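Regression test case RT-17, inverse folding.

Input:
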């Protein structure tokens, strides 16, 4: 949430391997590969990561890298505890399933049975719809002004009032859009049905039963043993302490603090039926199929996909909250569990987790072999394709502006760009299937019965979070290259300053060597090229800045556009 919508955008092992036992799945060569991968990704001087890998419920790899606290110089301990963000959702889902198993609620029940005053806009929204992100309820974290409220303590009713009157994104059960709001509601349902606070219910029915002694609920007034300090990138220093937020907002969508060891105990308790019967766990770990037959790749609190020609089920969920990133994977066929918890929000663990996953399963992580494509066929792929979802959320959850993927004939190759993004090459690996080098993105052009291209399917390898994005081909003109004009350094000086895009995220503009530069929080500076006397653009990505002059000629705000428009006030 603190990052600009921007496509501009080793480690020192501080503990020895613990409880290491090599097996067929974990040879010494694989262990060394994983260790070296993590060392090269999280340097000793940076905020770090704790990683645990288990087989048959027993750790085979457990290690920490980097720093848990830059101020004190504390190195990362594999037993450090971290805010796990949206990994909390699986605990909330399990809480609902525990109540269902006890006969205290049904998954097909209308949520108004337990939330009678909730505004469901005349639609039937079931408990299962909330579990599977098929409710249509907009995620409150993407609603306008959320960033202004996130630091304020709010009651359950305050949060409900913030999002419940927002129109549904779709009729329940017909589509998928990741919703923190829906999981917030599930937490309240747990409270209303059980007669206990959410925290007490999860503590009694999950933490205690699983033996999780190092798992807690977010509270800045409490001191948790071995709690890592969360960090985010900064333009002035490499990293700064993460910006403040109030724990009343994440609640049952993201307020748990835990360790990799406790997450293993959690997974072990699930598969051993300590918490819920296997029949319910199987439902939670099966992808929900939407009304039109589309696979959502999501069950109840977990993303669920298949890999290796469907040989392996990948049960996975990550989390992100100020200063912390997390990821957890379970492979039922191999009984292998992987947990990664990081206090560095500037470096997602997804990439290293994907490499580890493929290595463990003996699946090559090499990119597809590009095939030759007859250049005479390039034009049939060109055009504009309307973006439907981003980051598993429907675009309309957070923007009224349409976005497109533009496919162009580059002469020697196909070129793609996205609204707000940079240009890159598309490389064919099968008929109508393309990939982007050094990326897990995959693109498949869809044809109708007449053989004409009508849509573009976009997904990620090896794991797609939520449904693939099917972008329909539309009659929209591909943008032409912007033309740069010349402005004097003196004419651009008036735009110098710092403009707040959102709390904690600043766009700094300054003139240097006769050019106007932009430097977003935690990112490199880039040249802004003048298009008019107050409009500038970036060449690296599709982004523009329009400075707004007051009646006296001073500049106190700008409109920054990158996929969506942001009104930024000048603060310095």
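Golden output:
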């Amino acid at each position: 949430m603190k990052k600009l919508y921007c496509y501009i955008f080793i480690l020192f092992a501080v503990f020895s391997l613990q409880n290491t036992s090599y097996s067929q799945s974990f040879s010494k060569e694989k262990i060394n590969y994983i260790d070296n991968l993590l060392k090269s990704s999280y340097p000793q001087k940076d905020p770090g990561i704790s990683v645990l890998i288990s087989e048959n419920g027993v750790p085979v790899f457990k290690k920490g890298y980097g720093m848990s606290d830059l101020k004190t110089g504390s190195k990362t301990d594999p037993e450090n505890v971290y805010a796990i963000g949206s990994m909390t959702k699986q605990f909330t889902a399990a809480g609902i399933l525990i109540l269902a198993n006890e006969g205290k609620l049904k998954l097909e029940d209308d949520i108004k049975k337990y939330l009678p005053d909730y505004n469901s806009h005349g639609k039937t929204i079931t408990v299962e719809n909330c579990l599977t992100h098929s409710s249509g309820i907009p995620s409150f974290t993407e609603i306008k002004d959320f960033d202004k409220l996130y630091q304020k303590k709010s009651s359950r009713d305050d949060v409900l009032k913030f999002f419940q009157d927002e129109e549904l994104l779709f009729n329940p059960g017909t589509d998928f859009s990741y919703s923190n709001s829906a999981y917030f509601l599930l937490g309240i349902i747990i409270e209303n049905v059980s007669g206990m606070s959410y925290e007490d219910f999860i503590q009694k029915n999950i933490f205690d039963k699983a033996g999780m002694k190092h798992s807690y609920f977010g509270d800045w007034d409490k001191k948790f043993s071995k709690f890592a300090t969360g960090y985010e990138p900064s333009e002035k220093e490499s990293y700064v302490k993460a910006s403040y937020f109030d724990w009343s907002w994440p609640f049952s969508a993201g307020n748990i603090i835990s360790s990799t060891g406790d997450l293993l105990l959690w997974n072990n308790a699930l598969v051993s039926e300590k918490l819920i019967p296997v029949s319910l766990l199987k439902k939670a770990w099966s992808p929900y199929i939407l009304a039109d037959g589309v696979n959502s790749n999501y069950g109840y609190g977990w993303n669920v996909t298949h890999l290796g020609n469907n040989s392996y089920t990948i049960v996975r969920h990550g989390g992100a909250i100020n200063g912390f990133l997390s990821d957890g994977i379970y492979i039922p066929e191999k009984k292998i569990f992987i947990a990664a918890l990081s206090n560095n929000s500037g470096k997602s663990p997804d990439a290293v987790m994907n490499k580890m996953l493929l290595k463990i399963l003996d699946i090559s992580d090499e990119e597809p072999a590009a095939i030759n494509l007859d250049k005479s066929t390039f034009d049939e792929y060109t055009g504009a394709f309307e973006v439907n979802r981003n980051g598993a959320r429907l675009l309309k959850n957070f923007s009224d502006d349409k976005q497109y993927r533009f496919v162009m004939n580059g002469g020697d190759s196909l070129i793609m760009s996205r609204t707000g993004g940079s240009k890159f090459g598309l490389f064919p690996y099968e008929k109508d299937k393309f990939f982007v080098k050094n990326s897990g993105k995959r693109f498949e052009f869809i044809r109708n019965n007449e053989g004409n291209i009508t849509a573009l399917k976009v997904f990620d390898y090896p794991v797609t979070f939520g449904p693939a994005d099917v972008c329909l081909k539309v009659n929209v003109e591909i943008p032409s290259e912007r033309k740069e004009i010349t402005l004097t350094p003196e004419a651009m000086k008036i735009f110098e300053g710092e403009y707040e895009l959102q709390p904690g995220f600043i766009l700094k503009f300054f003139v240097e060597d006769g050019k106007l530069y932009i430097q977003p929080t935690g990112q490199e500076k880039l040249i802004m090229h003048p298009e008019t006397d107050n409009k500038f653009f970036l060449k690296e990505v599709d982004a523009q800045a329009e400075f707004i002059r007051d009646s006296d000629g001073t500049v106190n705000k700008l409109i920054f556009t990158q996929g969506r428009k942001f009104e930024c006030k000048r603060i310095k």
